[in-house]
Design goal:
The protein is an alpha+beta fold. The protein is built from 4 helices and 8 strands, in the order αββααβββββαβ.
Length: about 130
């Protein structure tokens, strides 16, 4: 398993996520034929030998809580997009970027995290590595 002390996780996450950019958004999807947000995070973390549960709310129950000001590459950021509960998760990539399977954009993307932080409620940030 990768560890923060033995690897540059930002580079490892970049190499893991880059080939998945553009994979179509598919509700319930958990493979390179289509991902939803938590299927994407589960798939990426499996590449690091970390087994995450299937749904974003279940993933949020695991890991170590960190603040948004202390986010590091690989941390998962959980959002409430308006329904009152966790409804989206993305991987913080460093440099103000987040990788996620974006239903509104139709595919896996890397976007500026600032828009999401300003438009949705952050439920929390969790660290798994």
């Amino acid at each position: 398993m990768a560890s923060r002390s033995s690897y540059r996780l930002d580079e490892l996450f970049q190499r893991t996520v880059q080939p998945l950019l553009g994979v179509p958004y598919r509700w319930g999807g958990a493979s390179p034929s289509g991902f939803d947000c938590s299927g994407f995070t589960q798939y990426v973390y499996k590449k690091f030998d970390v087994s995450l549960p299937r749904t974003a709310s279940q993933q949020f129950e695991k890991g170590t809580k960190v603040s948004t000001s202390s986010m590091q590459p690989g941390d998962l950021v959980f959002f409430d997009t308006g329904g009152g509960s966790i409804s989206h998760v993305g991987i913080y990539m460093g440099a103000g970027k987040m990788a996620h399977a974006a239903s509104g954009q139709g595919s896996v993307k890397i976007n500026s995290i600032d828009w999401y932080l300003n438009h949705y409620r952050v439920v929390g940030v969790k660290r798994y590595l």
